[in-house]
Each structure stands twice: as structure tokens, then as C-alpha cells.
Specification:
By secondary structure, the protein is of the alpha+beta class. The protein is built from six helices and nine strands. The protein has one domain: Protein Transport Mog1p, Chain A, CATH 3.40.1000.
């Protein structure tokens, strides 16, 4: 080791550790072979009203690439709001934002009280299956029940749900915990999607789910992955 500056000998282990850490935390995306989830916005449907103002309020917080939010009027006078958010070529942090925002946190911020967490709903659509978290709320001062259905779809994790087993068996909602689990699993999906909807005016969760399913089923698309360059 004669002739090698001491400072280089001290710095070399740090450099090696940094390179190894970067290689571990930046795995190449897995090969994409499964269809990719999309939710098409109706091109000509007067019952769907885009809410660009609401989307712009949440876009920065979610760190998503794009998406949309729309109010939907139904024939039975039920109010609905449908949301779709898209992450492509995502990094770990912004993908985990999809899991971080639980309905009871978002709804609680606007004065809604969680009434019940219902069993997860399963929606089979063509080439894929979606799992929807189902929660029921009511305003602190009373009023109609509000039912929220939310699905987080992640490429490579086709059976992931908002609350259960997406990463290392424990998704939770603490971003620090998610980052640690993601680092241990070298979690780097190529695509992440959120489909969510709020239904107001239905007396039961079953009826609210049927209304939500009817609203979105015809808009769900499974697109083939783009070929590797």
C-alpha cells in the first residue's frame, strides 16, 4: 500500500459502499409482458363532467404523470365522482404515494367520519383483475352515506391491494415503512394506476358497488405493453 495517499484508502470503502447501494436501489425494471391498465374517459358523454380544478389540486401531492377526475350523473339520481391517476416509468417513491393515501385520511380531512371498512371487492375485466378497497363514510353532521372504492394496480403485483400484502407482507400507510420494504424487495415497477370512485345516495354498500361497477366497467382497457426498443 506504499505510495497510495491515506485519504484514498479511507475514501475507497465509502465509494464502494455507495456504488453497491446505488446498484441495489436502482434495479432494472422487470420485463413488461402483462397488459397495462387504463381507464378511458368517455369521448362523448354529457353525464361525465371533467373536474380539472379538483385534479390540479391533488396532482402535485400524488406525484403522478397524469390522470383525470370527473363527476358522473346517473339515471337514478346517484352522485358519483370517478378518478384515475397514472404513473409510468415510475420510481419507488412516487409509486408508493399510491399506497400512502388511505380513504379515511383523505375523507377525514374534509370532515367525513369512517363508518365501516367493507371486505375487498374483486372486479374481473377481460385480461385483468382489480381489487377495490371499500369504505363507508358519513359527514360528522349526518347526511347521506358516502361509499369510496379504490384500486391500486401495480405492474408485477397483479394481486396487490390497498391494505394487504403488496410489499413484504405489510403495506400499511407509513411512507417510511413502505420505503424500507421497497428497498429490501428492490421494488421498482414500471407502471402504477389508481382507479377510485365515490358514490353518494345509495342505501347499502352492495348497491353502491353495483352502481360504481356499472359506471367504470365499460371504460376499463387493458393495453398490450410496448415492445422493447
Amino acid at each position: 500500500m506504499k505510495g497510495i495517499p491515506r485519504i484514498i484508502l479511507w475514501a475507497l470503502p465509502v465509494v464502494v459502499a455507495e456504488v453497491a447501494a446505488h446498484a441495489w436501489m436502482s434495479p432494472p425494471p422487470t420485463a413488461q409482458s402483462e397488459p397495462i391498465l387504463e381507464l378511458a374517459f368517455p369521448s362523448a358523454n354529457s353525464s361525465w363532467t371533467p373536474r380539472i380544478d379538483v385534479y390540479e389540486e391533488v396532482e402535485d401531492a400524488l406525484l403522478c404523470n397524469d390522470g383525470w377526475i370527473s363527476d358522473v350523473e346517473s339515471e337514478n339520481q346517484t352522485d358519483a365522482r370517478i378518478s384515475f391517476f397514472r404513473w409510468d416509468a415510475a420510481d419507488t417513491v412516487n409509486t408508493l404515494e399510491a399506497f400512502k393515501h388511505l380513504p379515511e385520511q383523505c375523507m377525514g380531512a374534509i370532515g367525513m367520519r369512517l363508518v365501516k371498512i367493507h371486505p375487498t371487492r374483486k372486479l374481473e375485466t377481460g385480461d385483468g383483475v382489480l381489487y377495490f378497497d371499500s369504505t363507508q363514510f358519513r359527514h360528522q353532521n349526518g347526511g347521506k352515506a358516502v361509499f369510496i372504492f379504490k384500486s391500486v394496480w401495480v405492474s408485477g403485483f397483479p394481486e396487490s391491494t390497498l391494505r394487504n400484502d403488496a410489499l413484504m407482507g405489510q403495506t400499511g400507510h407509513e411512507l417510511r415503512q413502505l420505503r424500507l420494504a421497497a428497498a429490501m424487495a428492490r421494488f421498482r415497477p414500471q407502471h402504477t394506476r389508481i382507479i377510485s370512485g365515490g358514490i353518494v345516495g345509495m342505501p347499502t354498500e352492495e348497491l353502491a358497488w353495483l352502481q360504481f361497477e356499472k359506471t367504470i366497467r365499460g371504460q376499463i382497457r387493458w393495453t398490450p405493453p410496448k415492445p422493447e426498443p
